[in-house]
Design brief:
The chain has 195 residues and is mostly helical. The chain has nine helices and no strands. α3 packs across α5 and α3 packs across α6.
């Protein structure tokens, strides 16, 4: 396996802006870095499962991809636009903040992987390009999936840390921050449609 190409591909796809990273930063800003770690762990668990599924069912997924690509894209774009709307219209209300703080961020992080077209296409690509041509054991699929889950955790935790470090600045400019985060989510949705 071309290790450097694999690592660069994983790094670029994991750390560049996308729904996971935007949501991690927003949750850290809204709740706290510590609370956002639940979401990041969910991202890691969800992507681990997704990468395993891609490893075991890659041939099947590639053969049916043209059939599922459009519904998957519509679902993912719709969800991202919903998240953008919720981000844009969120208020800094302590009462609401405490209620929302009880959300299961782990479940949100895990489940969003299965409606995130960028993540799904990334999983299919990394598995079909870098793993399946070079490895055939189930153990190697497990180890690579675990590695990809860990990288997903590190990238979303990095974005969470950024959100919590700049929390005071972001709080002063809450409306502008929400607009920017909403626009980035819309950009992610539009890029999926145009890709």
């Amino acid at each position: 396996m071309p290790l450097l190409s694999f690592l660069l591909f994983v790094f670029v796809n994991s750390f560049t802006p996308g729904p996971n990273n935007f949501m991690a930063m927003s949750f850290a800003n809204k709740y706290s870095f510590k609370k956002s770690i639940e979401f990041c762990l969910g991202v890691a668990a969800g992507f681990f499962v997704l990468a395993l599924m891609c490893s075991f069912f890659n041939l099947l997924l590639i053969s049916i991809l043209p059939i599922i690509k459009v519904p998957l894209a519509i679902l993912g774009v719709g969800y991202m636009l919903y998240l953008a709307y919720k981000t844009l219209t969120s208020k800094d209300d302590n009462r609401k903040k405490n209620e929302n703080g009880n959300q299961n961020l782990f479940a949100i992080g895990a489940l969003v992987q299965f409606v995130n077209p960028k993540g799904i296409l990334y999983g299919i690509t990394v598995v079909s390009t870098f793993i399946l041509p070079y490895y055939t054991s189930y153990f190697s699929y497990f180890i690579f999936s675990l590695f990809l889950g860990i990288v997903g955790f590190i990238s979303s935790a990095s974005w969470s840390l950024f959100g919590s470090i700049f929390q005071k600045i972001i709080l002063q400019h809450r409306k502008a921050f929400n607009v920017i985060m909403a626009l980035l989510l819309v950009y992610s949705a539009v890029s999926i449609v145009l890709h």
